[in-house]
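input
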Amino acid sequence: MMKWLFSKRAALAFLLVLLVLIPLYLTTLQTIPNGAEHYYMIDVGETQIVLNTWGTLHATGYPLYVILGNLIVTVLRVVGVSAATAPGLVSLLWTVLALGGIFLVLSRQFSVSSFQFPVSSGKPSAVSGQQSASRISAVLISVGVVILFGLTRTVWIHAAIAEIYSFGLLILVILLGLALWPQEPPPNLPRTQGRRNRLYWLALIGGIGVFHHRAILMAAPALVYAVWGEFFSSQLDAKNHQLFETVDHQKPKIKNLVLSTQYSILIKRILICLLIGLVGFLPYLYLPARAEAAWVYGEPGTWDGFWDQFLGREASRFIGAPTTSEGLTANFNLVNTVLVTDLTAPGIIAGLAGLLLALRKHRRAAIMLLLSGGVAYIFHVLLYTDVLSALILPITLSLAFGWGFLAEVVIGYRFTVISYQSSIFRLPIKAIAVLGLMGVFGVVLIGQNYGFIRELTNDQTGLETITLAEGAPPGSTLMLDWGPRHFAVGFARDVLGELPNIRLVSHKADFKNLVTQGALVTPEYTFYNRPVSWWEAQIGATIYLHATAPRLVQITTEREIAGNPPETGIVALEQSVLCTPEAIDLYVSWVAAEQPAQNLSVFVHLLDANGGLIGQGDQSAPVYGWRPVTSWQAGEIVRDVYPLPRTAGAAQISFGLYRALDGGGFENVYTFETAVNCDG
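output
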């Protein structure tokens, strides 16, 4: 069986998995800077930057993932892969390796002996056919389970985006594979040495896993259960038996001696395992070594900053039991909603049924998987108050194994007689039925996930934010909240070398100093989450807003007063039109003779040569609604920008200020006109 697992037939079987999954993964692979804000995508843009710049990631740093990812991205870019695509291919690689490991483990579990097919005669050809049908049934079930698991949403999305979780899945699969693999050592090693070797390999890979992501600790009870007996020496047990048999009157004394020796062995091996596991800490030296890279999270070059990263203190707000029954219910519903979306309710039931049924035939594997998935589920529901894919994947992986165990129960017990002719055979009808159900389930998962994932990976928000940032005045400071939009502009600046004349900061910057160092700008939508009162608290002064470019607002602490204000009313002191390939932008400088007593709205109408309306850019108030006219002082200049669509036939812009009437109508209070000449 071991020889077969690494044979050409096994490779061909796994190739079938890849033929199904790889085209789906590649057609949903993210090839643009991320801007999507779904919880799957929050940190993707940062990862795209870090893997291209040899930078450092947010806590807990994930240094081994970053080191390996940097190397792979560097190679991919040398052979012509784009900077935005390469990080996603890193995730795809880890996913393929993880699925390969799952296939090997499943194939080992569903060995030939697991399937019992009665034959109609005792002819050698019939027996040979029976074995072939058994093996093919086992392989096809393994192929089906791996494909279905690969189609679940959390696995699929992390094969298509730049994130850490596919690497964590690979480590988890390696750990479970080591623990589930045959316990017999290689022929050239003594039994005890072979077992110790496996124990120490688990300690090494486990340490690497835990230092990559602390959620790997959820697998510890399962692994300890699987190898607990290997902490003790079987040779010592044999000597103990001889002593008990030959020296009857000294049994109590010998028993105490034996127990003492066993505890010494246990403590010794636990300490050795812990020391081996600490090897996983070594990649953390990367953080201070790259503290001066182009993109660095936090301050890993300082002692406190390094431990903030390592301990992930900023994530502590998610860890802890909900404080109310409503909170616990909400967390329970949150986790279960993600699982049902991943596996469907029938898929969860089938997986649980398979794991419970496997307690009879695959007891050790079933208990391991129940512990691995169960501990992760309990921790996620009771002690973690956000969605964490590192805790979801162990649950879905265990349930996916359950699908395989359930399929084995259905097709592996004795049923109808199968006839064979020479070496020609037919698969049992139950095997065909199970594979058919798997096929239907796979179609359901594709229909549920393909469009969703493709929409996320093709979200244009990142590109749109980069375009917006291109409008920032040279030498200005652009504030974007830490998150996908911030990362998209960071990608353009630090990876692509674009936007060299702006400074990018997040909401944590020192705005009191920045506002005195040049133009401080932010997108107009920022004020929905960070209103004027927030900015004034940060800066410590009254602020005034002006539109400086399409969708960009400048923040100042001083009013700009016109040298020749109007005698009455409000005028458009300056006005100009700028045509771009995508838009017609109207720039206006408003000035009021005195502080207006009533708020007015803005109308901006794009007209053709006949005066027909062909475009519109009305606003509830100037500066995208954030500078009501009643906030203006006498003689103050309020600069504004009104984006209009680039439309053929545009000849004129009519704009001004209007008020709503009590009866539901509108009255234009001030009207201005300016010509449009985009072809000149």
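quick obs: The mean pLDDT is 87.
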